Amino acid sequence: MIEPDHPTLPISRQCALVGIGRSTYYGGPRVEKPENLALMRAIDEQFMETPWYGSRQMARHLRRVGHVVGRKRVRRLMARMGLAAVYQRLRTTIRHPQHRIWPYLLRDMTIAELDQVWCADITYIPMRRGFLYLVAIMDWYSRRVLAWRLSNTMDTDFCIEALEEAMAGFGRPTIINTDQGSQFTSPRFTEILIEAGVRVSMDGRGRWMDNVFIERLWRSLKYECIYLHAYETGSEARAGLGRWVTYYNGSRPHSALGGRTPKEVPRASTASSWRLNKVKDQA
Predict the structure, then answer these.
(1) Alpha helices in the chain, H assignment, sequence order
(2) Is 72 buried (19+), middle (13-18) or exposed (0-12) by CB count in 10 A?
(3) In this structure, how many other beta carbons lie within 10 angstroms of the beta carbon of residue 3?
(4) 8 Å CB contact between 260 and 40
(5) Tens of pLDDT along 84-119?
(6) Which residues pair with 137 in a beta bridge?
(7) What is the pTM of this model?
(8) Span 123-130, mean pLDDT?
(9) Terminus-to-terminus CA distance in the chain, angstroms?
(10) How far apart are CA 86 and CA 69, in angstroms?
(11) How far apart are CA 140 and CA 157, in angstroms?
């Protein structure tokens, strides 16, 4: 899909147009042995159900379902995937020692309209011969996915590309909430927001429920798309994810939205506002 010798479009622009990070074009999917990829998929599926499993408990689970595997191997694979016990989080949640951590601004806040709060997060995407990472920008009120990018590395560039696409297409939010991963605490990422007048909010350390709606997105995405297909290449994964995001935004009704789809949510609706802490209690 990328033409290195295109006369007018540089590679970076072509990657932006097809929705992949430049690192994905240059590097391709991350590679592991087939047996390890099978284990990583099994780990990912179980971790969606039991995010408190560490390597010891995960190894026990895998042995119970027929895998011959030791704890050291499971620990290495979980680290490669970026998973840590108790909370389903990628390695991006490890703080960068020189990056500023911003306070969490959403506690007890009433979210009542579009573009009041956006959120961003990264998740692991298993493939037939490797794996990729996916970042998404979502509007909290409508649950609409505003932009997304795939990459084979968890660098800052593909997060910035997704953010810039979301802001180019939908303006800017009042607040954007992320975890404390180094991509989101990077001055390159936060300076874009500050210059646009966006307030930065970050989850408390280890508190994945502070970003609960995008966690629900990942669960739906994996069970309705990723686990049903064995994508072999980055272009296949990108096309499949694109179809699912289009369906999610435009055709998939949400009970929390009164049966509407994210695209059908009006620009302002105080009648259907909710309190964040109440939604968390129901999760």
Answers:
(1) 11-18, 22-27, 34-49, 55-64, 71-81, 157-170, 182-185, 187-195, 212-224, 234-250, 276-282
(2) exposed
(3) 9
(4) no
(5) 765 444 444 445 456 688 899 988 888 889 999 999
(6) 120, 147
(7) 0.71
(8) 86
(9) 40
(10) 21
(11) 23
